[in-house]
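Translate sequence into structure tokens.
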Amino acid sequence: MKILRWIITLVVIGVVGYFFARSLIDNWSEFQSHQLAFDWGWVLATILFALAVALTGVVWARVVRVVEKDVPITTTEAVAVQSLSWVLKYIPGQVGSVANKVLWAKKKGISRMLIIISFVYENVFLQIASIVPAAVILLISLGPQIFGDNVTLLLLPLLVLIPMAMIMYRPLFHKIVNLPAKKVLKQDVPRDYFLSTWQSLRASLEFVGPRIVNGVGFVFIAESVSDITPSDWLPFAAAYVLAGAIGILAIFVPSGLGVREAIIVAILSQYIPVPEAILISLIARLLSTIGDLLVAGTYLVTRRTIPKEIRP
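Result follows.
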């Protein structure tokens, strides 16, 4: 079992390392083609991108504790688990992310079904917290013409919200999960594993916090490239958050590579010249990738404060 565990660990590290290195190399080569002077705003943006991951872990842990009040998850532990899951996002399909939390739950003595449900909630709430505010901000800023030639830009994400909203209704979500669970596991999933509608709405609002942190980081990047005014800050932040949400929906693309940049350029080109929009999207991708190194470092530091037998 020890040999098997080491083999699996090396394979996972190899896969994540490959996709991460490819992302970094591709974006670095694009970045080098533009003669840009260093800007301290890039450092702040990178730190904020990493901080948003930690905050997401804290909010996710709150969801777990609301459902299972007897589960003692410290803030440090939540950050460590989330940080590792975030780094494992480079494995397409989010397989690595959910597997990490399930394996940690087994060590912790928490129901794996509960953690899988919390993972679904996390992604649903992140999408709602990203798409709804961003769509409202961009519609107010740009008006209906934002659809124009990019009708799928907002329409598809908004359509995705329909099934997500259904998940926030506890009786329906419980029924959706319970039917296959009874056939596969031969047991019912406790109704207490699911949030009430009010708890779901409150959690969605809490997930807005990390999105705001991401948006602020992106504004620092935009200001280093283009002469934007304070009136542009909010729609620029919304563009980045919306692009990130759509990138997550592209589950078979490692970390939403290429998808996020296309959305950013499509929206920012309504405010600034296309070349500047492209450059901002490339810098954002590069810095967010470097930010993932900070997230990995956060995991290595925080995991040492957790008892070895329950480390993620």
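Note: The radius of gyration is 20 Å.
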